[in-house]
C-alpha cells in the first residue's frame, strides 16, 4: 500500500450526529416524540387547542409525562375532545368517567372539562374561532424567547396572567396563570426551546 493511503474496515461507520434537546426532555420515547414534534410549534387547530387546554388542567399536581401516557385514553373517553359533545355530558357520563381507570379520576377536573367545553363554545361563537381569541394575547404571533437552560424558564408571565384572568372571567376553570403559560409553551405561542436545542435552531417558532 502506497504511503498516504489507508483501508477502511468493513465495520467502520461514520460518527452519528446526536440531536441536542431541551434539558427537561427525558429518554422516554413518548416524551421525545412530544418534544420533537409538538412542544413549542405554533398550533391553530381549534380541536387541538381545546385538547391541550384540558390536558394542561388535568396535569395540575402531576407530571406532564403522566398525562401524555393517558392522552389516548383521554381522547377516547372525551369523544376526541369534541367540545360540543362534552358540553352535553350529564351525571351518567360523569359517573362513567369517574370509573375510567385510563384517565385521571378527579371529580373537579372532570367537571371543569365540561364547564370549559361550554365556555369554549361561547368563545367560538363570539370570535369565530378559539384560535383567533387565544392568539390575540401574543399579537397573533409566536414569541421567540432565548432561553439557555430550561431551569431559567418562568412559571408564568404578565401575558399568561392576562390570559388567565380573561379565561376565568369567561367561565373557564383550571386555568391559573401557571397552567396558561404551560399551555402557551405547548401550543407554540412562545418558543421556549433552549437555544442549543435542534428545535430552536430549526426555527420551530415559524407560524
Chain-wise SSE layout:
Layout: H1 29-37, H2 46-59, H3 64-77, H4 83-86, H5 91-98, H6 107-127, H7 130-134, E1 143-144, H8 158-169, H9 177-186, E2 190-191, H10 198-201
Parallel strand pairs: 1-2
Helix pairs in contact: 2-3, 2-6, 2-9, 8-9
Tell me what you see in this structure.
This protein is an all-alpha fold. It has 10 helices and 2 strands, in the order αααααααβααβα. The protein has helices spanning 29-37, 46-59, 64-77, 83-86, 91-98, 107-127, 130-134, 158-169, 177-186, 198-201; strands at residues 143-144, 190-191. It has a two-stranded parallel sheet with strand order 1-2. It is globular and about 50 Å long. The relative contact order is 0.16.
Concise overview:
It contains ten helices and two strands. The chain has helices at residues 29-37, 46-59, 64-77, 83-86, 91-98, 107-127, 130-134, 158-169, 177-186, 198-201, and strands at residues 143-144, 190-191.
Radius of gyration: 21 Å
Structural class: mainly alpha
Largest sheet: 2 strands, parallel
Number of strands: 2
Distance between the termini: 57 Å
Sequence of secondary-structure elements: HHHHHHHEHHEH
Count of helices?
Answer: 10
Spatial sequence of strands, sheet with the most strands: 1-2
Mean pLDDT over all positions? 90
The portion of residues assigned to helices is 40-55%
Beta content = under 5%
Low-confidence stretches: 1-9
* Principal-axes shape call: globular
